[in-house]
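[recover] target loaded
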């Protein structure tokens, strides 16, 4: 065995390059967004995945029982919807025919087996998502978002469309601000759906409704089943024998329930999460193998597990796997298919053969084979934070078989604040984290108060406290590692995207702990966000900050753009110029202000990118630019040359 080279932290040479991440993985996207929706059609398995090397387009792929995998989406199409801007639920499939939303024009297309896609919706400012096929009536039921009236908030409805595109659709349900999850009963006689209104988000309060489907496809009498302003309902599904099931957090945890003879019955009461925040459509954490058996995933202490639930007995039996993240669960007689990953396994499509318990990987998001000596294993830590509470994070120590640091040196720390803020970090193998640790930079990935996986009470720590609790937890996590002697207190950095970018900018502006930071399409002006952002999030801040403009004082007090005189450490900004969620001026105003006061600042804008970077060349550029920036600020040499970034006031 060769002797390890002594070299300063940050300067280690690594095989985990930005080029490898950008071109041979799904980039830096959230796994649910990058390898998302799964559908079963007979014996075939379909899924939608991002291709950074193809300009960030989404492709529907199919795998046959014989093991043949092929792309369904032609190269000129991009199977992605912009409903709620975040999308999800971009396709449905029935008997080999695929119906999908195309990104460039947002029209729905029908693609028959071995045929070319043909549009079935008009050339209008409509967007479609979360479809279910009504074979009995030859129709498709979906969410439609109407942008046809300029200057007015988009209108969301549930729509029924002819499968051949012979009409513009019939509105089934309207009047509320948002709809999702239209699900037909097995005989087509009843339709279930979710709905909610401003100012609530779907993880705050939703309603579950059921209506009678008439023979002509119209909707008859409807009734409220469950939910309200303080109860979040997730994933309604009909069992094969026509019993409506759903997930509710009425006990403080997202648990499974069913609706029988007008009564709501719990299936499995457990202090665990069987649901996710519905940032995107078509999320699925459970599915029916049969009327008596559900295959489900649940999060316990932040880690996801697979299980089998007997619907008659209510007994939950764990299914042993090596996976710590599980999503997009689908099932059919004798099998289950789901997406999964773990600290040493990338996001993958996996099939479970229930009779034998055998797991078969159908598709991996990355074909990269790495020596495990370069991989840092996450340590789940719980650390003290404000008000005597505890917060959660994953700590990744520097790791390389080729290098050790000089005696007495401690590594720089990069704290990651995840997006959302109602969301969580992931335990899957993420090469964008290993990119740092294999070069000698420690990483702390924080599940601050407000994150999911830990019940509603933990999620609601952020109510009225965004920009306070999240910042406290990121700061206290970093200080906890300093106290443990793990990292260099003089070289603490923080980074985040979107809401995580806001937490980053707040931490750099209102606290004096971090020495540098990176904001990826982050919020700097809460008032501008409240006034300019898209419909889905336009009232999100009511619960996270306070009602606007009534509590304008809080919006001003917590906006970093108003306190640039307090920000005196270096920051690099990354921004998509077509971002409709956090517009570019949020970054550009900060860059201008910091440059004017002499702070070291860099700005890297990307043409053609929206909220989150999807193109390989931009993913590569962002990683390298951030590394270059820290090397200049923390004064370490890079092992490999990277394209420099212009840093003002350096």
């Amino acid at each position: 065995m060769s002797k390890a080279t002594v070299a300063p932290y940050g300067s280690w040479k690594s095989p985990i390059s930005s080029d490898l991440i950008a071109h041979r993985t799904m980039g830096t996207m959230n796994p649910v967004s990058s390898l998302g929706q799964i559908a079963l059609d007979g014996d075939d398995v379909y899924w939608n995945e991002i291709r950074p090397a193809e300009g960030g387009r989404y492709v529907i792929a199919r795998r046959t029982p014989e093991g043949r995998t092929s792309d369904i989406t032609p190269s000129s199409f991009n199977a992605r919807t912009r409903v709620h801007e975040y999308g999800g639920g971009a396709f449905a499939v029935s008997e080999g025919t695929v119906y999908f939303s195309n990104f460039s024009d947002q029209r729905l297309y029908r693609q028959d087996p071995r045929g070319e896609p043909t549009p079935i919706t008009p050339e209008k400012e409509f967007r479609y998502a979360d479809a279910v096929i009504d074979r009995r009536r030859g129709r498709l039921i979906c969410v439609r978002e109407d942008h046809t009236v300029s200057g007015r908030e988009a209108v969301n409805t549930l729509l029924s469309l002819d499968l051949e595109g012979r009409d513009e659709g019939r509105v089934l349900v309207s009047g509320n601000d948002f709809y999702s999850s239209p699900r037909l009963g097995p005989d087509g006689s009843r339709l279930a759906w979710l709905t909610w209104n401003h100012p609530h988000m779907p993880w705050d309060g939703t309603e579950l409704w059921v209506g009678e489907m008439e023979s002509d496809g119209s909707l008859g009498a409807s009734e409220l089943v469950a939910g309200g302003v303080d109860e979040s309902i997730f994933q309604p599904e009909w069992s094969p024998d026509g019993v409506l099931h759903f997930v509710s957090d009425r006990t403080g945890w997202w648990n499974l329930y069913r609706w029988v003879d007008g009564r709501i019955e719990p299936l499995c009461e457990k202090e665990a999460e069987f649901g996710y925040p519905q940032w995107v459509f078509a999320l699925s954490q459970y599915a029916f193998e049969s009327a008596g058996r559900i295959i489900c995933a649940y999060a316990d202490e932040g880690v996801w597990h697979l299980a089998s639930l007997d619907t008659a007995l209510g007994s939950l039996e764990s299914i042993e796997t090596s996976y710590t993240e599980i999503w997009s669960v689908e099932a059919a007689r004798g099998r289950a298919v789901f997406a999964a990953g773990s600290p040493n396994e990338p996001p993958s499509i996996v099939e479970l053969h229930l009779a034998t318990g055998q797991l078969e990987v159908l598709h991996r998001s990355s074909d990269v084979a790495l020596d495990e000596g370069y991989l840092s294993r996450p340590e789940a830590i719980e650390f003290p934070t404000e008000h005597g509470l505890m917060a959660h994070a994953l700590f990744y120590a520097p790791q390389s078989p080729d290098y050790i640091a000089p005696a007495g040196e401690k590594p720089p720390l990069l704290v990651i604040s995840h997006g959302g803020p109602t969301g969580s970090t992931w335990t899957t193998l993420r090469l964008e984290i290993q990119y740092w640790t294999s070069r000698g930079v420690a990483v702390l990935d924080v599940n601050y108060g407000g994150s999911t996986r830990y019940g509603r009470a933990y999620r609601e720590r952020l109510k009225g406290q965004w920009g306070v609790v999240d910042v406290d937890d990121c700061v206290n996590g970093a200080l906890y590692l300093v106290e443990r002697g793990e990292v260099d207190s003089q070289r603490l950095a923080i980074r985040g995207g979107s809401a995580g970018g806001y937490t980053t900018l707040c931490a750099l502006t209102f606290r004096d702990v971090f020495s540098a930071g990176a904001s990826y399409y982050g919020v700097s002006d809460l008032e501008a966000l409240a006034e300019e952002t898209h419909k889905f999030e336009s009232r999100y801040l009511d619960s996270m900050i306070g009602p606007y403009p009534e509590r304008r004082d809080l919006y001003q007090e917590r906006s970093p753009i108003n306190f640039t005189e307090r920000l005196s450490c270096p920051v690099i900004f990354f921004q998509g110029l077509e971002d409709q969620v956090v517009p570019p001026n949020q970054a550009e105003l900060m860059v201008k202000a910091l440059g004017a006061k002499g702070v070291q600042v860099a700005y890297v804008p990307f043409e053609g990118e929206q909220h989150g970077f999807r193109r390989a060349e931009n993913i590569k550029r962002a990683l390298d630019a951030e590394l270059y920036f820290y090397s200049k600020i923390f004064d370490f040499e890079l092992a490999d040359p990277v394209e420099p970034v212009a840093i003002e006031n350096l």
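[recover] notes: Residues 616-634 form the longest helix (19 residues).
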